[in-house]
What we know:
By secondary structure, this protein is mostly beta strands. Helices cover 0% and strands 55% of the residues.
Amino acid sequence: QLRLVESGGDTVQPGGSLRLSCALSGSTSDLEAIGWFRQAPGKEREGVSCIGGNYDSTNYRDSVKGRFTISRDHAKNTVYLQMNSLKPEDTAVYYCAARLNAWHCERGALYDPNYWGQGTQVTVSS
């Protein structure tokens, strides 16, 4: 069993920055990849970024490339999403998700996660 807890969500002005954290606990021996997703009101959930594999390969959706950076601290069992130059359209609940064993990420979306966190709200507004 794996538990994921997100934190770091807040309200910021356009152009601001936030760093989200996803703390992992439990059995991480089979963990291969972590993904960040987001869901805005009235919209479908979408993949934002993934990190995984032996070399911490990363992948991003086009709309966040150059602004968001995903990273992983293996010693702390934590994955981060650094978000810069935030825009109002980035407003959403952000979730982290974990994939065990074989994993695939495309355009920032981690396929078929096994575990999900509870989400953290990010609001970008002036």
